[in-house]
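_Full entry_
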Amino acid sequence: MKNNLLPFLLIVSISFISCDKIKGPYTEISPDTGGNRKILIEDFTGHRCVNCPRAAEAIKSIQQLRPGRVIAIGVHVTSQFAAPGSGIYNIDFRTAVGNSNDSLFEVSLLGLPTGMVNRLMVSGVRRIEYSNWSKYADSLLQLPAVAEIKIENIYTASSRIVTSTVKCDFLTAMSGSYKLAVYLVEDSIPHAQKDNLIPAPSNDSDYVHNHVLRTSLNSAFGELLNSGPVSAGGSFSKTYSRTLNANWREKKCAIVAFIYDDLTKEVVQAEEHEIIE
């Protein structure tokens, strides 16, 4: 037994040593969704919004209860809550993509925090208060998946270019037109945040911002996948490239892709995958 085990352990050891020497480009492929429906929560927020940490906590709780099935995007908007301020609030997380979505869907119209769950229209508006996100998440996750998304990311360290191939497979026949939007987000960004649970002046200098929207790979509202009914088994593949900004950390960045109905704007499937694991 000992003589048979030793060569095996030696091979395993050599394999681990060899892994440390791998250089870019790096290829990462998202796991098969297995027919599971996934949902998208867009958290409209700002680093000078004292109540916004509660919405971030709600997302964390929702994701922990439904592992792997809830995709989140932090969309920093408004001059009141997200514009750079003096001192420790000198950063600007706002994006043209986020501003365009906020303008179209009027999410921040009544203040922050608030957001959208699969961009559902509820009582004539799309914004849903964070206290209700869990309820709508549970309801949507009971529905069968109508599509799958697979993401393949290739990152070249020397040029800081990520190339993402997004494959969309429809599992059932669908009427109408559907769009694919592909965004880039960054996790674990240490930066100050106002928080009303901290004594005045409510500065949390150790706050960590997650799933922060950085940009889109195919415009704010994505691109059309089809112009008519889609049959079951219909498949579409799109490839995009983006050079990462110097201050974006590739190991903390991910690609988020989602399919939505062009007429109703409702998201029917979402997926996320890291640029580098």
